[in-house]
């Protein structure tokens, strides 16, 4: 087992299985920027890599080919071709010749092409050359694993996984690397020698998500509040400027992506496609493409409302760092040191933390199902919104778990620093919401109210009357 990798159990098992296969393999690895794709490959497949090339952001074809040739010369110890390739067809011909001359391995030789979308520069003919390289050469080499990796997930899916040309159905394996769960985040932070209580790990996660590259900035001897101040607000903090680079490094026309993200940040409860179009003024064709790319790259999520049509689907900003940046970092740059300690005591913090905690619960639906004892039950999670009519007022429920065994959970997320207390008014609101939902949806399923909290709620008379089940923060940290 490779050292230094936290979590990623399924991904490591899949890589090991691929290495043992008796055919040539073409693996696509994709996922959000900074999520650890390159680290996983280099660490776990270190002894198998015989060629590695990383694309350069906005690098010209000539520069990319020179980078290729530099790696080629190192790998061949300057014993083969001596003239730099002038095209990708020629470069891949060099690589095919090099691979065919290597001794047969016990498992597989790995060719790792990282940030592949950056290699595909305009008019470079990179994809046709890659098609020929695979179809003519590598597909016949049972001892070779070709890995295409990239953060521009939409490019990987369009040009490789869902390709319609010469690469149609050629991808044999795929891994979508997701951000760390809370459990993996806790393990990662512990591996840095840092011991923090679950609540403070949750605070960090709310600000930066489960992104390993961000989390490695966590230092010993500091509280979550101090760490967020240092990493997000100090002039040298990694996440103070990350937002400006994040979208432009992934998308060629990032202005549209940023416009949608910022519109959704202002409406954390979510927006329909129609509302996004009206707010951003992006044309229909560009809107479809941009929304798809943001969903593929895990910056936004789409929730299909229960019992409603596809056009009523809700888009939500679920990238925790982007939400935190736009809510707090961007408006407070230059505000001085220890700003987070002050901001976390203001009213805006309560609203943001509620949405962030709700997002985290959505990302940990498997842990919630396990806590409810329904891991083996088919479920759909969605949202629900009712505008109101002559007989019923409007209502919105941001998280619903719809079970195949005739039960629906209406979930209420509450992020608090102490034990949550359900008041008389809050209980009345939950009761009214459930009534409206039953009447408006006309569901025949049993409807339960489920409370998602940080610390156990006080079981007063209102709790006992209205709450059917409760899931606390510690359950979200389970594997």
Folded structure, characterized:
- The protein is an alpha/beta fold and 479 residues long.
- The protein has helices at 9-19, 37-44, 61-76, 88-100, 116-119, 126-137, 153-161, 182-191, 198-208, 212-215, 224-233, 238-246, 254-266, 273-280, 284-296, 320-329, 339-343, 347-363, 365-372, 424-441, 461-466, 473-476; strands at 25-30, 49-54, 109-114, 144-150, 173-176, 300-303, 314-317, 379-386, 395-403, 407-414, 446-453, 469-472.
- The chain has a five-stranded parallel beta sheet with strand order 2-3-4-1-5, with helices on both faces. Strands 8-9-10-11-12 form a five-stranded mixed beta sheet.
- A hairpin with an 8-residue loop joins strand 8 and strand 9.
- Helix 4 (88-100) runs parallel beside helix 6 (126-137) and helix 16 (320-329) packs antiparallel against helix 18 (347-363).
Average pLDDT for all residues: 93
Overall 3D geometry? elongated
Low-confidence stretches: none
CATH class of the largest domain: Mainly Alpha
Strand order of the largest sheet: 2-3-4-1-5
Determine the fraction of residues in helical runs and give it as a percent range: 40-55%
CATH-derived architecture of the largest domain: Orthogonal Bundle
Number of domains: 3
Largest sheet: 5 strands, parallel
User: What gyration radius follows from the Cα positions, in whole Å?
Assistant: 25 Å
Count of DSSP helices? Answer: 22
- Compute the separation of the termini in Å: 19 Å
């Amino acid at each position: 087992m490779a050292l230094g990798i936290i979590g990623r159990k399924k991904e490591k098992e899949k890589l090991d299985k691929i290495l043992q296969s008796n055919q040539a393999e073409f693996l696509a690895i994709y996922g959000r920027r900074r999520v650890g794709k390159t680290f996983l490959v280099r660490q776990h497949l270190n002894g198998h890599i015989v060629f590695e090339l990383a694309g350069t952001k906005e690098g010209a074809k000539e520069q990319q080919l020179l980078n290729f040739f530099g790696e080629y010369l190192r790998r061949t110890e300057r014993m083969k071709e001596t003239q730099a390739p002038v095209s990708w067809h020629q470069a891949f011909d060099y690589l095919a010749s090099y691979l065919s001359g290597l001794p047969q391995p016990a498992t597989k030789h790995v060719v790792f092409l990282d940030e592949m979308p950056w290699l595909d520069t305009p008019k470079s003919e990179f994809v046709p050359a890659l098609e020929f390289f695979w179809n003519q050469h590598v597909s016949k080499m049972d001892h070779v694993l070709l890995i295409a990796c990239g953060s521009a997930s939409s490019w990987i899916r369009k040009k490789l996984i869902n390709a319609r040309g010469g690469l149609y159905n050629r991808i044999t394996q795929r891994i979508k690397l997701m951000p760390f769960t809370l459990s993996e985040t806790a393990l990662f932070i512990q591996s840095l020698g840092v011991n923090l209580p679950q609540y403070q790990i949750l605070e960090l996660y709310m600000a930066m998500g489960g992104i390993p590259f961000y989390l490695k900035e966590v230092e010993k001897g500091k509280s979550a509040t101090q760490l967020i101040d240092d990493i997000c607000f100090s002039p040298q903090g990694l996440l103070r400027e990350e937002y400006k680079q994040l979208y432009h490094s992934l998308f060629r026309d990032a202005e549209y992506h940023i416009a949608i993200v910022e519109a959704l940040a202002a409406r954390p409860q979510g927006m329909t496609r129609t509302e996004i179009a009206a707010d951003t003024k992006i044309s229909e064709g560009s809107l479809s493409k941009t929304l798809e790319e943001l969903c593929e790259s895990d910056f936004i999520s789409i929730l299909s409302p229960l019992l409603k049509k596809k056009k009523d689907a809700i888009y939500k900003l679920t990238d925790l760092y982007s939400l935190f940046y736009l809510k707090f970092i961007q408006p407070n740059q230059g505000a001085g040191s220890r700003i987070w300690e002050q901001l976390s005591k203001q009213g805006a913090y309560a609203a943001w933390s509620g949405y962030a905690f709700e997002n985290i619960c959505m990302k940990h639906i498997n842990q919630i199902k396990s806590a409810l004892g329904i891991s083996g039950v088919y479920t759909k999670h969605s949202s629900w919104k009712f505008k109101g009519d002559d007989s019923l007022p409007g209502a919105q429920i941001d998280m619903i778990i719809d079970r195949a065994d005739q039960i629906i959970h209406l979930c209420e997320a509450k992020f608090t620093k102490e034990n949550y207390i359900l008041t008389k008014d809050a209980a009345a609101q939950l009761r009214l919401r459930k009534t409206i939902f039953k009447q408006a949806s006309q569901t025949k399923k049993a409807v339960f109210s489920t409370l998602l909290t940080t610390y156990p709620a006080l079981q007063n008379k209102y709790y006992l009357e209205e709450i059917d089940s409760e899931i606390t923060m510690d359950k979200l940290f389970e594997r």
